[in-house]
Design a protein that fits this description.
single chain, alpha/beta, 12-stranded parallel beta sheet, 30 strands, 17% helix
């Protein structure tokens, strides 16, 4: 008989065997605690509940001979590890954290990572009265279908860049994950406060402040919110203040709906450009209602080849940036670059006041302007280009340096901003 030896310590082997035994027990019992909730949620009878448990056990027992045969073919170790991973993914992981501080996580020796919280594929996390501060790379990084993070009264603050000077984001939500924020603060992070990307990704936020996002390196952003690639975001009673480059950025099919949002004091970046309150481009859609966009640079709200609406909102005190890009200093600027694209913007009940170049500016863009007041601006209303909005008689455009400029030729941007790189999903 040939003896086999192993370099693995016996204690470690016992630990692995114990884990397997524990998982086997959990695999049978895990559905039990959920049965009362299932019965109540779906109105099940006692007989149906019994069949639910029976079906679960039957599926479990059916898998045993299949995995045994597979282990004989490809090796017991591989199948064992595969089954442990499959169990973890299939049953999901649920975490509840209350009144906790998660702070000062450091990067690895090769200068990567250092997350405050990493929530991947299928994990469910609930955070209540938690402070996530002074970590590295990304404060909260969540991604994957079925991943859910519910955060109530949570502070995401001072996430630091990596040693190479990059990143430092407050929150990143990707790949169909769901994030719900209530009474949260995302402050003093670097490059981007809140990032959301990809189809199926959803962010719902209420009573949130996103403030003082800084540049991590020269030429980087410092944006409050960055939504792109068909992500969907909804905000209620949100303050986006004292960020850099752009307070709220939406691009590439993202949809953002904001009610009672204040975007204030967005600052230019180090080269003197930017400082826009909200900027929407390339097929994204922004719906603003009851918003206040104050003290921006270049544009309070700008749409470039994008649809949307701005309703019952105040756009005030937009000035040019130090770089004086194209002379931009508009409360609202809508441009389609190509009139054949058919982008439409509805502006209703807006007050545009104290903007250095134009209160409301439509360039080659269709839509409607109704019930608005434009006063104390350089120009009250500018309309130019082939596509034009319907301008109703209900508007009040007065007390501007020039009330109406039609068929003008003022300069507007026609090049979209590049999208930021995505974090690595590993």
């Amino acid at each position: 008989m040939t003896e086999t030896s192993s370099s693995v310590p016996p204690k470690r082997l016992l630990g692995v065997l114990f884990l397997g035994t524990l998982l086997a027990a959990l695999d049978i019992a895990v559905v039990g605690p959920a049965l009362p909730a299932l019965r109540e949620a779906f109105g099940l009878s006692e007989r149906a509940v019994a069949w639910t448990f029976t079906a679960f056990v039957l599926a479990n027992l059916t898998g045993l001979p299949v995995m045994a045969a597979l282990a004989d073919r490809v090796g017991r170790k591989r199948v064992y590890l595969f089954d442990i991973g499959l169990f973890a993914v299939g049953t999901g992981t649920t975490v509840l954290a209350k009144e906790t501080i998660i702070a000062r996580t450091q990067p690895l020796v090769h200068g990567k990572y250092g997350y405050g919280i990493l929530a991947p594929d299928g994990v469910s996390i609930t955070l209540e009265r938690v402070a996530i501060t002074d970590n590295h790379y990304i404060g909260l990084f969540t991604f994957g279908t079925g991943t859910t993070v519910l955060a109530k009264e949570v502070l995401f603050a001072r996430t630091q860049p990596l040693p190479d000077g990059q990143w430092g984001w407050g929150i990143s939500v990707q790949s169909s994950a769901l994030l719900s924020l209530e009474r949260a603060a995302i402050t003093d992070n670097y490059d981007i406060g809140l990032f959301a990307s990809e189809l199926g990704t959803t962010v719902n936020a209420a009573d949130v402040i996103i403030a003082r996002t800084r540049q991590d390196t020269p030429g980087s952003a410092g944006r409050g919110i960055n939504a792109q690639s068909s992500a969907q975001l909804t905000f209620e009673r949100t303050a986006v203040t004292d960020n850099h480059d752009i307070g709220l950025f939406a691009a590439a099919g993202a949809t953002v709906t904001a009610t009672e949002m204040m975007i204030a004091r967005t600052q230019p970046v180090d080269d003197g450009s930017g400082g826009r309150g909200a900027y929407v481009q390339n097929g994204a859609q922004l719906t603003l209602e009851g918003a206040a966009i104050l003290d921006s640079h270049e544009a309070g709200v700008m749409f470039l080849a994008a649809d949307g609406s701005v309703t019952n909102s105040l756009l005030a005190n937009t000035s040019s940036s130090p770089a004086n890009i194209l002379g931009l200093a508009d409360g609202l600027l809508a441009t389609a670059a190509d009139s054949s694209l058919g982008f439409v913007l509805t502006v209703s009940g807006v007050i545009a006041r104290g903007n250095a170049r134009a209160g409301v500016f439509f360039d080659n863009a269709g839509g409607a302007i109704k019930g608005c007041v434009s006063t104390d601006n350089g120009i009250g209303l500018v309309v130019q280009g082939e596509a034009r909005p319907d301008v109703e008689q209900s508007n009040v455009i007065e007390s501007n340096n020039e009330n109406l400029l039609s068929d003008g030729d003022l300069a507007v941007p026609d090049t979209p901003i590049e999208l930021p790189d995505l974090p690595e999903l590993d």
